[in-house]
From TrEMBL:
Protein name per the record: Branched-chain amino acid ABC transporter permease
Transmembrane stretches, start-end: 20-39, 46-62, 68-91, 103-128, 148-167, 196-222, 234-260, 272-290
Annotated InterPro entries: ABC_transp_permease, BCAA_transport_permease
Keywords assigned by UniProt, alphabetized: Amino-acid transport, Cell membrane, Membrane, Transmembrane, Transmembrane helix, Transport
Keyword GTP-binding on entry: no
Origin species: Hoeflea prorocentri
Pfam families membership: BPD_transp_2 (PF02653)
Length: 297
C-alpha cells in the first residue's frame, strides 16, 4: 500500500473521516465525564437512538429539501429532550454518590434502550440513504473520494472548533470549567451548579445523537450497535485524558487512522492494535495524552 500514493491517501482520508465522526460522539462523553464525573455507559445507546431516530425522521421528511439535515438535528433534539428528563428525574440524585451507583444506573439505561429499540424498530438491519447530492465522489486531484465522508470531516472540524470556542472564549464555558474544578466554590458564589450539570448532560447526549444521525448513512443500523461505539469512545477518552476535549480530538484521530490502516495492513489484528495503542499511551502517560495527573496520584 505504501508504494501506492492514491491508496495511501484514500486510507488516510477514511481514517480522518472515521476519527472526526468518533470525536463528535466521544466529545459528549468527555464533557459528561469531565464535568459531572459520571461514567455514562448509556452514551453508546444514545448514539444508537440518534441513528434510529434519523432513520424515522428521514422517512417522514422524504421529499422535503434538506430533510436529512432536519432529521439529524431532530435526532439531536430528541436526545437532548430525553437526556433532560433522565437528568432531572434520576441522574441528579446520584451526583456525589459512589461511582458504582452511576455505573449501575447507566448500564440499566443501556438494557432499557436496547429493548426499546427492538420494540420500536425491530431487529432487522436498517439503512439511511445518503443526503441528495452527497451520494457521489469528489475529485481531489490525487483520487476521487466520497463527498459525504468529506462533509463528515468538515462537520467534525467545525464541532471541534465550536466546542473549543465555547469552552475557552465564552462566560458559559468558563462556568463549565469552574464547575469541573471546584463545584463547592461555584455554589458559594451563587452559581446554579445543578443547572450547569443538567446543560452539560443534555449537550453531551445531543452530541451522541447527532453523531449517530451523521453516521447512519455510512453504517448499518442494528440492535447492539451501541456496544462497539461505547468501547471506542472510552478508548478515545482514556487515550486523550479524562475530561480533555483536545485529548479526545487527538485520540479520535489516532483511533480512526489506526483503524483505517490496520484494516488494510493487518486485518486480523486491527482490533488488537487499538488496544495496544491504548496500553502504550497509558504506559508512557497514565493520565492520557493531554490529561493531567490526579492530585495525590
Amino acid at each position: 500500500m505504501f508504494d501506492n500514493p492514491m491508496l495511501l491517501f484514500i486510507q488516510f482520508m477514511n481514517g480522518l473521516s472515521l476519527g472526526l465522526n468518533l470525536f463528535i460522539i466521544a466529545a459528549g462523553l468527555t464533557l459528561i465525564l469531565g464535568v459531572l464525573g459520571v461514567l455514562n455507559f448509556a452514551h453508546g445507546a444514545f448514539y444508537m437512538i440518534g441513528g434510529y431516530a434519523s432513520y424515522t425522521l428521514v422517512n417522514w421528511l422524504s421529499g422535503v429539501p434538506g430533510g436529512f439535515w432536519f432529521a439529524a438535528l431532530g435526532a439531536a433534539g430528541l436526545l437532548a429532550l430525553g437526556a433532560w428528563g433522565i437528568e432531572r428525574l434520576m441522574l441528579r440524585r446520584l451526583y456525589g454518590r459512589d461511582h458504582v451507583y452511576q455505573l449501575l444506573f447507566t448500564f440499566a439505561l443501556v438494557l432499557i434502550i436496547g429493548d426499546v429499540v427492538k420494540v420500536v424498530w425491530g431487529s432487522s438491519i436498517l439503512s439511511v440513504s445518503f443526503p441528495p447530492g452527497l451520494d457521489g465522489a469528489v475529485n481531489l486531484g490525487i483520487a476521487w473520494y466520497p463527498s459525504y465522508r468529506l462533509l463528515l470531516c468538515a462537520i467534525g472540524v467545525a464541532v471541534a472548533a465550536g466546542l473549543w470556542f465555547f469552552v475557552n472564549r465564552t462566560r458559559a464555558g468558563r462556568l463549565v470549567r469552574a464547575a469541573k474544578q471546584d463545584r463547592e466554590m461555584l455554589q458559594a458564589l451563587g452559581i446554579n451548579v445543578g443547572r450547569i450539570y443538567m446543560l452539560v448532560f443534555v449537550a453531551g447526549s445531543a452530541l451522541a445523537g447527532f453523531g449517530g444521525a451523521l453516521a447512519a448513512p455510512a453504517i448499518a443500523l442494528a440492535p447492539g450497535m451501541d456496544a462497539e461505539i461505547i468501547v471506542e469512545c472510552f478508548i478515545i477518552v482514556i487515550i486523550g485524558g479524562l475530561g480533555s476535549l483536545g485529548g479526545a480530538f487527538l485520540g479520535a484521530i489516532m483511533l480512526g487512522l489506526l483503524t483505517a490502516f490496520g484494516i488494510s495492513l493487518f486485518p486480523d489484528f486491527e482490533i488488537v492494535m487499538v488496544y495496544l495503542m491504548m496500553v502504550l499511551v497509558l504506559l508512557i502517560r497514565p493520565w492520557g495524552l493531554l490529561g493531567k495527573p490526579q492530585a495525590g496520584g
